[in-house]
């Protein structure tokens, strides 16, 4: 093989395998995005767009909006930052039981807008039943006082992805309970994909991905 060919192969190889940043640098970038207000501005814009779209719609008596909880209605960012962006089931459950997550003000504004328009609010979360009471308390403490129901996962849903669980619940709410879901609000695409989600509002999340 001549030297020119070797050089071309070397260039292709280098081009295809760029080295990643140090993990700590990624964490600091995410932290800056949140702490310097960029996340807040992005979320504000998402909510403003949603409200102007919803303004164009009219809602019947069984109109309902589905809200996810984590990183949608409530923010776990401060906790996640304290533990340096890791995740461990026991530590997570302890945190949820403290019921100390703060609301995301921009999302709360959308919630208040929908309550004002007489749309029924349903919280649908992949949190399990052992933290459901604490979740209820946390939501009410953070100003989400008007809602029809809070749905958490029970043991029977253990093998399902979050997407499967949430779609199953939306199907039940529409086909068995007669709700008309006009909007779904979540920070994960798995909150929004599938049947009966209505108008989809995707809240930014740079902390984790849930399938
Ligand atoms: Mg979430």
Q: What's the topology here?
A:
Layout: H1 3-16, H2 23-35, H3 38-54, E1 63-67, E2 74-75, H4 77-82, H5 89-98, E3 102-103, H6 105-116, E4 120-128, H7 132-141, E5 149-153, H8 162-175, E6 180-186, H9 189-192, E7 199-202
Parallel strand pairs: 1-4, 1-6, 4-5, 6-7
Antiparallel strand pairs: 2-3
Helix pairs in contact: 3-6
This protein binds magnesium ion.
Q: What does this molecule look like?
A:
The protein has 211 residues and is α/β, with parallel strands linked by helices. It has 9 helices and 7 strands, in the order H-H-H-E-E-H-H-E-H-E-H-E-H-E-H-E. The radius of gyration is 21 Å and the shape is globular. The model is unreliable at 5-11 (pLDDT under 50). Helix 3 runs parallel beside helix 6 (105-116). 47% of the residues lie in helices and 16% in strands. It has one domain (22-202): HAD superfamily/HAD-like (Rossmann fold), CATH 3.40.50.1000. The strands form 2 sheets. A 5-stranded parallel beta sheet has the order 5-4-1-6-7, with helices on both faces. Strands 2-3 form a two-stranded antiparallel ribbon. Bound molecules: magnesium ion (MG).
